Amino acid sequence: MNPTPVTPQTINQAAELLRQGRLVAFPTETVYGLGADASNPEAVGKIFAAKGRPDDHPLIVHLANVDQVNDWAENISDAVWQLANAFWPGPLTIILNKKPKVPLIVTGGQNTIALRIPANPVALQLLQAFGNGIAAPSANRFGHISPTQAIHVSEELGENVACILDGGPCTVGVESTILDLSDEFPNILRPGRITRSQLKAVLKTDIKLSTQTKIRAPGMMAVHYAPHTMSLLCQTETMIAMIDDLCAKGKNIGLLVFSQKLASLPCQHLLHLPEQSENYETALYSSLRELDKLNLDMILIEQPPDTETWAAVNDRLSKATV
Ligand code: TXA
Ligand code: MG
User: Fold this and answer.
1) Of 77, 118, 153, 177, which cross-links 139 as Cys (Cβ 3.0–4.6 Å)?
2) What average pLDDT does the segment 166-171 reach?
3) pLDDT category, 216, cuts 50, 70, 90?
4) Which alpha helices (DSSP H) does the chain contain, by range?
């Protein structure tokens, strides 16, 4: 399945495919999503089959506007509208109590539902044309790296999708921040571009950052968001020592670095990412895919700083590496 160029006509065709219960991959500002009609359990089931995803792993429902939140969730507090006002459309997913009519297959059997209005214009046009919620995980095989370009989806999910809308490269590049508001205290289940400080500034309350909860949180498995090649996260100095050692043993290695100090290391497969966290984030997944294609013995990844703006990157890298 080749990516389809976006026109008003192909958007309408994609919406029609969704109505027929088929799968449509579409761009969001974070990563490409694998969409199905969220009200159609049979269609949603195809997502799990295409991804090889365990069926207790809940999906995010994407919406066109805030009015639709009431169709999916109940007990909606003021905090939700404040966050929606500040961050939607955008890379924030909010977990709320679900309406009884929401199919359990969407929520992995849970009584909570994840909702998000994405900021990508193609995603919004598709959501408007479809007129209902679109359930969509990242459009990759379960556990693998999320796709940030249409071609990644066609390489990985191929014929399992009825249409792949090509909206160009994703501008954010890592999955949305997930904030759980279904419990007593707000809790970040997955860090993303929208930081804890930004959320705190709007909610004016403390927010936990805990990916370990009673409900199944993203990437709770040891390896997630991962390349097939064995990947290691290393401090800058360790990396220099390891490269010498591995090269002496004749190993074919790839390097993913961001500091100036490592940019000119003598390694054939070195990718130098931006030193600014947001630009690094945008380039991360396509760089990992590029290195993963080379059949290397190992990928060494330079450990980024332990600061808030790097939280999403550090979370994904810790899950992509052994
Ligand atoms: O940026 C994103 O969030 C992208 C784009 C396509 O919107 N989507 C995405 O979906 O990353 P996915 O399925 O790869 O990750 C969503 C995560 C899942 O790992 C799931 O565990 C969590 O959201 N999730 C969904 N509903 C939940 C719920 N009710 N409680 C706890 N976690 C939930
Ligand atoms: Mg995913």
Assistant:
1) 153
2) 98
3) low
4) 8-19, 41-51, 69-72, 78-87, 121-130, 150-157, 196-203, 236-248, 260-263, 277-292, 311-320
